[in-house]
């Protein structure tokens, strides 16, 4: 199994004695049943069972009287690791799926640029505070910062911005109709 639960492969483990395997293998079917209750993939079940047996076989201080509980504990942790790995992979794919920018055709790019230029002309038609606030917002300034720069209250800046947006919407709708 790649991902969670794979052994370290450091080469420092020693091969378990044949007697150790005789102690562990009778638990294999029980471990498979436990894993099937928690995992949906046959491959994941087999990987977790084999990994649990291998870890127990290589464990230096294995208490032979507590082999069953030890294997159960290791197996359940491996099952949790599989679920964590799957969830992390799912989240990772989900996040990256939405960061793909759609490719615009050349026609769409030209139309968007023309609409933006037309809108900027309409902003310049606005009067006083409304024009100043919208131009500040176009530059990336927050309404609060624009209010401070223009020496007006935040409420006045928000009101001017709201009125300007409503006026621009009306002009845009009228431009599309006519």
Question: In words, what does this structure look like?
Answer:
The protein is mainly α and 178 residues long. The chain has 2 domains: 18-97, no CATH class; 106-177, Winged helix-like DNA-binding domain superfamily/Winged helix DNA-binding domain (Arc Repressor Mutant, subunit A, Orthogonal Bundle). Helices cover 72% and strands 0% of the residues. The protein has 8 helices and no strands. It has helices at residues 18-24, 28-38, 42-58, 67-97, 106-125, 128-138, 143-150, 154-177. Helix 6 packs across helix 7, helix 6 crosses helix 8 and helix 7 (143-150) crosses helix 8 (154-177). It is rod-shaped.
Number of domains: 2
Helix content: over 70%
The low-confidence runs, each spanning 5 or more residues with pLDDT under 50, are 5-12
Compute the number of strand runs: 0
Structural class: mainly alpha
Figure out the total of helices. Answer: 8
Element order, helices and strands? HHHHHHHH
Mean pLDDT: 85
How would you describe this structure in keywords?
Arc Repressor Mutant, subunit A; rod-shaped; 8 helices; single chain; mainly alpha
Topology (SSEs and partners):
Blueprint lengths: L17 H7 L3 H11 L3 H17 L8 H31 L8 H20 L2 H11 L4 H8 L3 H24 L1
In short:
The protein has 178 residues and is mostly helical.
